[in-house]
# Entry
Amino acid sequence: MTHPPAPTPHRHRRAVGQLLLGFVPVLLVGLVLLVGLALRLPDVQAPLAAARETTTATVTATGTAPDGRGLDVEFTDVAGAERAGRIELVEPLDVPVGAELTVSYDPDLPAGGTVPVFTDGDAAHAAVGDVVFGLVAVALVVLVVGALTLVRLLGRPRLRTRPTTTVPATHVVVRQGLLVRSALELDTSAGRRWLPVHWAPELDRLTPGTRVTVHGDPARARQVLPVVDGTEVWPSGRLRSREPRGEVRQAPVDPAAVEVGLGRQARADGVLPFLAPVLGLLWAYVDGSGPRGFAVATALAAAVLFWLPQWLGSDPRATRAS
# Structure
């Protein structure tokens, strides 16, 4: 007597949609910032690019305009004429009068008056450095977030190839601050294990202690793929031998549970991006990049703070009930 093959589990499309929901804002914000910074770079580089000639200048005054950050110097240009110049510093510095500095200047500027000159570490070089750093930082964040998302999108389906076992499972809800996430509590031969997961309606219909199929060995492996009521439930983290931090409680069973749109989860997780201005202010203060640095850091932080909870899992019903 032969038994028909087990039906193929349904794919967890909701987890895929949630991961993409989190990544798309990071990608869009990152592209906008990269384009904006790339367009700004030629403007901040232009004065330095025009300063083709290099010479030695003597400091004649400090603490001049603008805002006491100016440094007046005198130098001899390439034609042998004595000229006056001004270096704009990032912040006021006590440079002794008579000190000699290596400076660059634009030889095409007309003689007479004070011309802008540049030296290493001045405001012009700092502006270029800020834009270049912003380009690198934004690109790095987008690449890291994209790589982590891609690893999960490609890695979770590979768990299907692992041998299967059955273990008793209970759907629990974990609250950590503003985050409320689903997890499966598994009773294995090595004791209890907790697996954070992306929510699916099958979890709400799961009776506590029901045996479920698991791809992988939940007693030893760090990653397993549960199948609940014929549907794959993607893990949103590694299997843990210790109870998760925060408030852990058994989820109520709802035999009539149905799919819940991602909009509810997005609205709940949309609280975290409101913390982004605080991070933007902190970055602008530490980096000294001013309003532009604050704007870039805030926009990027908001996108990442929306992506992070999507990557950590979901539980829209528990979020609504909390």
Notes: DSSP finds seven helices and twelve strands in the chain.
